[in-house]
Known about the structure:
Layout: H1 3-9, H2 15-30, H3 37-43, H4 49-57, H5 64-69, E1 75-83, E2 88-94, E3 99-105, H6 108-111, H7 114-128, E4 138-144, E5 147-153, E6 157-159, H8 160-165, H9 172-191, E7 204-207, E8 212-214, H10 226-233, H11 245-248, H12 256-272, H13 282-291, H14 297-300, H15 306-315, H16 327-338, H17 344-348, H18 352-415
Antiparallel strand pairs: 1-2, 2-3, 3-5, 4-5, 6-7, 7-8
Helix pairs in contact: 1-4, 9-12, 9-16, 12-15, 15-16
Magnesium ion binds next to loops.
Amino acid sequence: MMIAQAVIKARLATQDEVNACFKTQAELARKGEYVTLKDILVQEGICTRNQVERSMKHDVLEDSMTRSARHIPGYHIISKLGQGAMATVWKARQLSLDRIVAIKILPKRLSENPEFVERFYKEGKAAAKLNSPNIVQAIDVGDAQGYHYFVMEYVEGKTVYDDLSKGRVYSEAEALDVIIQVAKALAHAHGKGLIHRDVKPKNIMITKENVVKLADMGLARAKDDKETAAQEAGRAYGTPYYISPEQIRGELDIDFRADIYSLGATFYHMVTGRVPFDGASPSAVMHKHLKELLLPPDHINTSLSAGVAEIIEIMMTKNRNSRYASTEDLLQDLQAVTRGEPPLQARRRVDPKLLKNIADMEKRAVKQAEDAAAEAANSDTVMQISTAEQTKWTIMILLAVMLALSWIFIIYLLHK
Ligand SMILES: Nc1ncnc2c1ncn2[C@@H]1O[C@H](COP(=O)(O)OP(=O)(O)OP(=O)(O)O)[C@@H](O)[C@H]1O
Ligand SMILES: [Mg+2]
């Protein structure tokens, strides 16, 4: 509980008085003067320093992260929005622009890793260049008291995870609406060379107006090596229900197709009510992503259209070469099935290996046919030859027989 809520709760100040203090604070911030709310409350004579401190005693979360959150210059922390496996997200007021933002504060162990910090700033910069209504806008990055923080657009709404955790199964049309908006966000980011790497229901937010926003775009992740992936599986990533096989293998050249796989796994969960692969431990789940055949989504939800089932299966193909060749292709198919048309890109997409196999098979078949024809032609000639030979021999035998008969007849006449 922060100062504002604490003093209101203790009836030391009204909401209006606190709002007036916020205004004063914002005005001062615009002049480059950062004053805490507590100081303003005291200066304005609303309460004494002791009263403020007493009111907060029982309510304030005094963990070190909260303390650091309250010391981010230029921002006033209002309340805690949520806690992920890796970080805490706070609702805050950006004093200079007098607007509400969300601030994600990373844990110390990541802030102390120089390689991670370098990536954190690099990706933060790249994310700040993105501009899409479907991406939670990155606003600022920085560090305060040894903690790195990421300031972003505040989204009022729920996450897809909130729905799924209540056991909600999305209708095909509802899921398509959400997935198309995320695909648009991804197409925009991928076009600028940015990969999300952690697409999942918890990172998809939906506003009251049904605008979908992809969160954590441009937030650097812990390194994608196999060991870290396995190590962090239960901790930083949560159970890896949506992670791509190549990320599990710790491949280094992760590209947009990893995001397509994760979005496919999210889509699968939304329309079937089940994660694609479940297991008793993170490593059991990861093993299934690598090895186990996917139960087609329309086998679980038989009301799914063939087109949607086909799209999900292509998105979740284990070999990324067989997934969509681009996020734009995926988007085209999602829009086509929404219109009730077939997913043409999915049908056009055939594994290059399979294409080669088909070509080889065709070549072999043609060759076999040619060989058979040639063999047939050859055997005809042999037959023709042998028939002519047979006739010749028959005539010769007949002639010999006739000659022998005429000799017998002559001898008979001479003896007579
Ligand atoms: N921009 C935002 N606006 C409003 N709320 C947000 C915003 N970003 C995150 N949140 C809230 O904070 C929570 C924690 O977010 P965070 O990204 O730390 O973890 P997560 O995505 O939920 O899970 P995980 O740590 O497993 O990735 C989210 O579930 C969401 O409710
Ligand atoms: Mg998140």
